Write a sequence for this structure.
């Protein structure tokens, strides 16, 4: 045998879960570039050792093409696969009418978990990162096959999870299995029962009650329908212990005490910008208004009315302006467009119609003249990304001015958000009470679930809990429930993703949620920031900085800019750019002196720079915020995946003088 020839000792691995991958024992990637070629590998792997007729492969992947063209495409894919596999090309068995894969020297993640001798819970855990998600959308026939295959494997995994939970095991294993089971089957009674029972065993009936309410929502149970026996038993125990009853629910936006209707989903009218001066594309104002409306509508908590839809409703575009007062709008976004040579200036204003049309926000952006569609995208992104956080804080201030009694779940969340970011300890804990009340008012409110999970993240990160393990467990439960409640809420997805990445130390899973959030709303600045965190946890520090800079560029005046500035400390630190990391630390602390995470990366950078006097001052302030914080505590909490990154961070803290234990 030649030295470079494959052998059983070297081995080949095919990964079908968490992003498809093929690599040899040395880690060399053998994954084809074409997604359809990858799909062929997946198809053949999952039916091995059986062969698949070429005609069936064509029907699954090229069913919408003519016969000759489809055959040529298959031949090209087989050629690509053989070329990519190189010395491993012998695993592909190509017959005249069929193809198959010889797996005798190949390890496959999914197949190994299905094997009779394997613990079936392994398959359950594999589903955390998705099953061949990167191959969806190739062809309707393939998508149908993929759905059926996922359903088949899911049934095997769920049955295994339920069997595991019926037997005695260590608590961490039980909780992880129950959560994994609910990710696959959100209505699984056994999984919910285990989680609720665990909270009762830990002496937290409030969390158990919340879990039962989420359980009720997940299985679609109405108030007048009989409960599953397990849930009824748990509720009896909670009530026997004097816990508060359910039933606090207020119709959205209704203030009974004042006897008036109030909205907590602001209605915004998007008017076409007024053109000042000549030489401006006459279609630009209307196109831009539609683009802004589309971009704003991606924020689930905002309701938009565009110029074109209003003009259609009014009957005549020229008469539309006269009818704006009839639309019962809370806010109106308008502005102007001017040209100076090859440059265009856009000025946007937000008028609050509830206070007489006062201008509460304005933004100016300058752009070079370019393709009209690209120009509309750029201008809309710059307006919308800056407007969202400002509007969120504005609506929060309005909600905070109202009586807390009898308000809706959404209003309570709005009141809690500013206190979470302000990080004053007393108001922070008050925000936790508001979010708890919000969940009682609306147990399936994705915003309330996500923000409360995020609140727990700060609770642990700031060192404000005596039981970080319990707070982490509850944060994970809330994050999972937020995603299950509304998988299309970009903000809820990215908040839940950050909880999974930072607290639960599952950055790959966090990445999936962040990418989903950004696909739903590419102008959500905080999603770019959080996805940057996840990249840094995985050791991709250049990608992390790029994403975090995108967050700052999208929203440079964000009320939460301190968080973005604190975020970039760690990737700079872990790249060895200590001076830049220290400069970012100074900016973050100036913007918010109560956020302890800013001090930690900053202190490590000062330690590496050997700036002892500065380090002493920063360490004193950090220990004032988190008394007893040590190097070992930093290591224990760190979500960084790579040992060298953890060591670089810890070594900087040691050099700065932070106690080891």
């Amino acid at each position: 045998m030649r030295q470079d020839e494959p052998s059983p000792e070297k081995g080949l691995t095919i990964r079908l879960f968490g992003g498809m991958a093929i690599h040899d024992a040395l880690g060399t990637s053998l994954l084809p570039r074409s997604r359809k070629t990858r799909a062929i590998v997946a198809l053949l792997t999952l039916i091995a050792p059986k062969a698949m007729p070429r005609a069936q492969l064509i029907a699954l992947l090229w069913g919408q093409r003519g016969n000759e063209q489809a055959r040529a495409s298959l031949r090209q894919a087989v050629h690509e696969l053989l070329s990519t596999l190189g010395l491993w090309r012998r695993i592909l068995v190509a017959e005249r009418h069929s193809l198959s894969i010889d797996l005798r020297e190949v390890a496959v993640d999914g197949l190994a978990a299905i094997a009779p001798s394997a613990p079936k819970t392994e398959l359950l855990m594999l589903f955390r990162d998705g099953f061949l998600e990167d191959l969806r959308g190739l062809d309707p026939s393939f998508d149908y096959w993929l759905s059926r295959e996922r359903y088949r494997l899911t049934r095997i995994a769920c049955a295994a999870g339920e069997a595991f939970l019926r037997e005695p095991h260590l608590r961490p294993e039980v909780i992880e299995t129950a959560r994994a089971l609910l990710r696959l089957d959100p209505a699984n009674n056994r999984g919910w029962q285990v989680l609720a029972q665990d909270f009762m065993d830990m002496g937290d009936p409030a969390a158990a009650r919340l879990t039962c309410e989420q359980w009720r929502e997940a299985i679609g149970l109405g108030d007048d329908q009989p409960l599953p026996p397990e849930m009824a038993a748990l509720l009896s125990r909670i009530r026997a212990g004097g816990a508060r009853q359910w039933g606090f629910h207020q119709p959205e936006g209704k203030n009974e005490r004042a006897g008036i209707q109030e909205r907590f989903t602001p209605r915004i009218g998007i008017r076409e910008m007024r053109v000042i001066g000549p030489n401006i594309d006459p279609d630009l104002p209307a196109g831009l208004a539609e683009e802004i409306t589309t971009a704003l509508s991606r924020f689930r908590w905002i309701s938009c009315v565009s110029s074109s839809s209003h003009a259609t409703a009014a009957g005549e575009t020229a008469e539309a302006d006269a009818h704006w007062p009839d639309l019962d709008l809370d806010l109106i976004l308008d502005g102007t467009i001017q040209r100076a040579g090859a440059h265009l200036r856009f000025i946007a204003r937000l008028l609050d119609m509830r206070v007489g049309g006062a201008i509460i926000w304005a933004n100016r952006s300058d752009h070079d003249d370019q393709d009209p569609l690209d120009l509309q995208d750029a201008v809309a992104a710059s307006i919308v990304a800056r407007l969202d956080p400002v509007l969120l804080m504005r609506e929060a201030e309005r909600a905070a001015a109202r009586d807390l009694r009898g308000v809706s779940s959404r209003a309570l969340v709005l009141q809690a958000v500013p206190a979470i970011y302000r990080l004053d300890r007393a108001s922070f804990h008050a925000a936790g009470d508001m979010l708890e009340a919000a969940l009682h008012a609306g147990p399936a409110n994705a915003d309330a679930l996500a923000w409360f999970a995020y609140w727990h993240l700060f609770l642990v990160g700031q060192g404000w809990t005596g039981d970080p393990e319990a707070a982490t467990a509850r944060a994970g439960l809330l994050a999972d429930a937020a995603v299950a409640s509304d998988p299309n809420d970009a903000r809820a997805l990215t908040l839940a993703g950050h909880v999974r990445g930072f607290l639960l130390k599952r950055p790959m899973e966090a990445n999936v949620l962040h990418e989903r959030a950004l696909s739903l709303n590419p102008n959500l600045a905080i999603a770019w920031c959080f996805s940057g965190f996840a990249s840094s946890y995985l050791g991709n520090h250049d990608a992390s900085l790029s994403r975090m800079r995108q967050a700052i560029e999208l929203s440079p005046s964000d009320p939460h800019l301190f968080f973005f500035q604190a975020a970039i400390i760690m990737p700079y630190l872990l790249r060895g750019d200590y001076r830049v990391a220290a400069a970012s630390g100074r900016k973050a602390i100036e913007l918010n002196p109560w956020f302890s995470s800013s001090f930690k990366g900053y202190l490590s950078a000062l330690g590496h720079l050997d700036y002892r006097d500065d380090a002493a001052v920063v360490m004193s302030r950090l220990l004032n915020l988190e008394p007893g914080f040590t190097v070992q505590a930093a290591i224990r909490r760190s979500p960084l995946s790579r040992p060298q990154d953890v060591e670089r961070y810890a070594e900087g803290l040691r050099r700065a003088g932070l106690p080891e234990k």
Notes: The CA atoms of residues 226 and 519 lie 40 Å apart.
